[in-house]
Design goal:
Elements: H1 2-13, E1 25-29, H2 39-57, H3 65-92, E2 98-102
Amino acid sequence: MTKIFLASLLAFSATPALAETPAIATTTVQTADLDLSSQAGQRALDHRLNQAVKDVCGIAYDVDLAGKNEVRRCRVETLSSLSAERYQRIAASSGSPIKVAAR
């Protein structure tokens, strides 16, 4: 009886709370050192943004198909949300940092 109780206690303690909100990961992409009016500067910005998106969205193991799909969805949505700001920064050739966040 004790073994069954301990097993059920462990099962319930590993279950996340229903009211738990997903954590939002953030990072900042520095752009002050980039010449966004040049193709090289824009490529460097794209590289930094892609790396930041990978950092905030994380990774999933190859055997975790649902996790892989979630990471892929996160990356697509996060890059999409950065698109307008990327174009604004290039147009303005601003040197301010860009904040990147994902859920």
